[in-house]
Batch of 4 targets.
Target 1
Amino acid sequence: MEPQVRFAATWVGRISYREAWQLQKELVARRADGEIEDRLLLLEHDAVLTLGRQADSAHVLATPKQLTKRGIEVIRVERGGEVTYHGPGQLVAYPIIRLGDRGLLVRPLVAALEAAMIKTCARLGVEAFRRDGHPGCWIEGDHGRPHRKIGALGLRIERGVSYHGIALNIDPDLRDFELIDPCGMPGLVSTSIAEELGRTAEPPTTAAVERAGVIFAEAFAGELGAPLAWIDAGVPTAARVSVEA
């Protein structure tokens, strides 16, 4: 690992999935060509369902008519993993990292992302853990309640550069997870920071997601042993994200 390789984070704001997907692809190409440094995009999506490249669409429980009525698109993408919900109140983080420059392999990258989610939960008052064989971030079952998933993870590596990433539930409407078998696991219980703290009466806010994003970025940079810089911070326009600091 080269600890002095800078790591640049950007708070993108609320953005559609397709727009962020295209932005990732552009940044991956530029990072692979050495035009830019490693990036971390932090954002919130409009409601959408995404399927990993080998995901079983049967895990989408809602009918096409129900999804159309709610304005929710289903998109199949290149990442690993099963079906995932993204929506308001959820922190999404996309690491655009050239692994070879940091001496990283995929498993240590996954571990760093999981550790950063766990540390973010802790800073927000919730104890979470890593569950062997089940990527992501979890809340341990207690008082007759099962293990609950609070953060999902799915990556893609192209030309030695990572993209896609994590989704951490800050204060989303958990009823939206009833549209799917989260991560392809029927009966899986999804939870959030707000749910665990008993604050579900509070409406989702992008501001809460942004605060969590700052915490996550600091934790993730720490896991990588990298100096953290912020570029275009607070600018919610994707077109300006790729501007160099």
Target 2
Amino acid sequence: MAAFNYVAVDSKGKAKKGVLEADSPRQVRQMLREKGLLPTDVEQAKEKSSSSGLSLFTPTLKVAQLSLITRQLSTLVMSGLPLEECLNAAAEQAESARIRSMLMAVRSKLLEGYTLADSLANFPRAFPKLYRSTVSAGEQSGNLGLVLDQLADYVESQNETRSKIQNASIYPAILLTAAIGVLVFLLTTIIPKLTTSLSSSGRELPAATQFVLAVSGFLTNWWWALLIGIFAAVVSFWLWNRAESRRFKTHRLLLKLPLIGKMAKGFNTSRYASTLAILTSSGVPLVDAMRIAEEVIENLPIQKAMHEAARKVSEGGSLSIALKESGYMPPMMVHMVASGERSGEVDAMLARVADSQERSLKDLIGVLVSLFEPAMMVIMGGMVMLIVSAVIMPIMQASQVG
């Protein structure tokens, strides 16, 4: 049986949408007529192949939705229900017809004899490779319910970390925008009104005053050129980074910047450690787990280093030594992994490493946010002081001469 999306009209002329399982569209239409509905559209719920080049238009799931579905499936599977019934129950509880259709399509593939991981592969943007590999490991080990529960915790943890970074960047962005707005207001509104009186004296103006007047004149008369320049710079930067070789150079440069580099390094190593921990604890072989985990790394130099580390481990090398030689993993992480290798508890140690890395990242974010506010205040105060002094200095000179 397959899942079909349908659109039908009831006796009052109201449109209804839903999903039904049947052997053919004709059977779906018959089932709808038996319910007193007039079918207007029936089509099979399926995922277009990513190789068709249309993967950008395939269904996706928000992190919160994916976490909820995973948690529901975990609870249902551990209660002893057959997997197809678990999917059917999760579909019935879905918050939208789109998610319901997706889960019913997964259930249809499962009824055809495919594994859950292979069934989820029809929706690669909703269920990424990391997710499917973990599910596959759970199916093979016979601990699918437990693995799904761990996977739900992982998804929620990653979402919490990403949300913390996004929320932490909101206040600095607002503060920076306000600071720029105040400076632009002073330079384009207040300063031009004083330009005439400052220039009409005929005396040579101080260098600071001349600089402020020049900036004010440029913003007043050439603001459009500035906007075009900023837009051109953004587009040029985007075009530059389209090629992976040039994007690699940009990412390497980011890692060398004082605070941004530490932030990027902490974020990527934290994600790698968390992903590696969930995969290995779910039963995925270490080398396979390392190759999957490297895909969650966004910084290309770190990703390349982790790919090389996976190659060394596949050749019989030690995980801790491979991570140390990568040059990006914190020493504490390397020592903890080495301890886990000696005690035979690499999985447990990786989980502790992941927790430690996430705490370190959150602490780093907190420090950066706390430093940004006073730094912006100092910079803003300095800029305002420059503008005020540029206005006052000629006035003071005129009063002394007088």
Target 3
Amino acid sequence: MMKTHTLWTVLGLTFVGFVVGPGSLNAQDRDQKADDAESEVLAVDDGIVLTVQNHHWSDMRIYAIKMGSRFRLGTVTSQTSETFELPSYLQADISEVQLLAVPIGGVQSVISPSVYPAPGDEVVWGIQHNLALSGTIIG
């Protein structure tokens, strides 16, 4: 007579399962959602919000440049605006941040002047048809 072994018995492991009633799962979900909502509110208050208004004819790839490193934030379609939340490592505690827009399929890109955003700031960057007229506002 040949014995068959499952992977669990070969490895010497025992699988133990628990059955949890739906009432306790709902309570856990509510507690978790409340904790997530509270941490999200704190994160939004501490973060830096970047709004890019693209008035150019091309779709643009948006980057943040800090201390010589380039970080991709996303893409903004032509004639629309997008909002990004800058990661905490892009806060300007030590050095400035510049924004770079590279047109998809184009050759001429635009870079913003140096900005020094602090936690809680909102940065608005308007990319114009004439890229030399693009400008930033920190508020």
Target 4
Amino acid sequence: MSNVKLFETKKVRTHWDEETESWYFSVIDVIEILTSSSIPKRYWSDLKKKLTNEGSEVYDKIVRLKLVADDGKMRDTDVADTEILLRIIQSIPSPKAEPFKQWLAKVGYERMQEVQNPEMSFERARENWQKPGRSEKWIQQRMTGQETRNKLTDYWKESGVDRTDEFAFLTNIIHLEWTGQLL
């Protein structure tokens, strides 16, 4: 699951890894926000060298994931989980770092609350759909559709479907029957 979080008015590309239950944040996006650098990639390149020279293992824990770039294409991007990102932020001299740490803590705290009480996820989804003006009817249809999809995939799992390509194949069959077109 990939999406964009907003920090103040800036976009930070993110990815939720369901397997590890971890958020990953685009390092370049964070550096651009904290430094106001016109070339955040160069800043990150220099910071990686500095951290490596200091004996830090931060760079070894950076992951590369495909995220949507400014040109709309999926591009490999350095991402870090919250722990590593906070360590990177600590290495950046910037008055913007403290509010960013607070923002990250809020995002992490909200996710932890949702893990403890999954109903909160539904409420947050409802609020997020209301912000761009979605109607209550649309929101209800969306939530009902997701519940139906979850029941279907649960049924498939109980029937022995466990591979991603098998789910994709079955989804394509349903889509073909519904629309007459393959996905």
